[in-house]
Specification:
Strand content: 15-25%
Shape: rod-shaped
Helix content: 40-55%
Number of helices: 8
Distance between the termini: 123 Å
Radius of gyration: 45 Å
Length: 313
């Protein structure tokens, strides 16, 4: 046998506290006890509203859009609170949210007809309900504003992150394009055709570790039956070494014709040494005046390895 509701409990509920005790007794006699097991949904959003509930013990969560990406906890109702009133007042008669109890709860239930009879009979009860609903709507409105502000902050951050990522992609694509152009330019510095004097066979292959590098070679004719062989390996890799490589190659081509024009006629054996001396002097000036070349590159690499010229009979 279920014990009837104690009218004194209703007297402690904000909605009913000012009703005469006789009215509380009558209302308590009409209410039915309901036990909600843990992890149970009392009603779902868009269900037809048939009952008004007063929480006697436990907690009930009021949730919008359950199971969707927009799911949001509206409120947690506790002992002495009431739920389910909106669907009994709204003309549509449907639930505006879902009610779920995670830990279980004990409720008192009043049917729609008995709820309407009680409200019609007690104008003060209608006034208290309007005041409580107004308070709840204000709280829900403030909560919605806070949620919107938080989502706005998240969207703003996501926008800036996306914009920054897009800028990085543009910079990366531009850099890759520039490196591709630099690779083609460096490739064009290398000889397209290797001399084939007949008695000697030359062969060459170059594959930079990166898009551009400091390795280079060249084979060119300096006189009848005389060829210059140039092999370079600048310390370090990438753009700095490629700049040294380009400057070295340009200086060799600029210097070799002038150094060789008179030396070949008198002392051909001194041509490599003199060309090296002029080359290193020019490179020293270039390195001092360049801010984009790696100054930590080993100088002895330039001195000992960047140029080798051999006479061929």
């Amino acid at each position: 046998m279920v014990r009837p509701m104690d009218p004194k409990f209703l007297a402690n509920v904000q909605l009913f506290k000012n009703l005469p005790y006789a009215e509380l007794e009558d209302l308590a006699s009409r209410m039915v006890a309901v036990d909600i097991p843990p992890d149970t949904t009392l009603f779902e959003e868009n269900d037809e509203g048939k009952y008004f509930y007063v929480i006697a013990d436990g907690e009930v969560e009021i949730i919008k859009a359950v199971g969707t990406t927009n799911e949001r906890l509206i409120a947690v109702r506790k002992k002495g609170d009431f739920i389910g009133e909106l669907s009994l007042i709204n003309p549509s008669g449907i639930r505006m949210a879902s009610a779920h109890s995670a830990s279980g709860a004990k409720l008192w239930r009043l049917s729609r007809d008995e709820f309407e009879t009680c409200v019609h009979r007690n104008s003060y009860l209608a006034y208290e309900m309007v005041r409580e609903l107004s308070s709840r709507l204000t709280t829900a409105h403030e909560s919605t504003i806070r949620d919107l502000q938080e989502k706005n902050r998240e969207l703003t951050k996501a926008y800036h992150d996306l914009k920054e990522a897009q800028e990085q992609i543009i910079i990366k694509e531009r850099l890759e394009k520039e490196l591709e152009v630099a690779h083609d330019i460096q490739k064009n510095i290398l000889p397209e055709m290797i001399p084939a004097p007949g008695e000697i066979m030359f062969g060459a292959f170059l594959q930079p570790a990166r898009a551009v590098g400091g390795d280079f070679y060249d084979i060119f004719q300096v006189a009848d039956h005389k060829y210059g062989l140039m092999i370079g390996d600048v310390a370090d890799k990438g753009v700095p070494s490629s700049l040294v490589m380009a400057q070295t190659h340009a200086l060799i081509y600029a210097e070799a014709p002038f150094t060789g024009s008179w030396i070949l006629k008198s002392r051909p054996s001194t041509l490599p040494g003199l060309a090296m001396k002029s080359l290193l002097s020019g490179l020293a000036i270039c390195l001092r005046n360049s801010s984009c070349i790696n100054r930590d590159s080993r100088w002895d690499c330039l001195t000992n390895r960047c140029l080798k010229i051999r006479r061929s009979s």
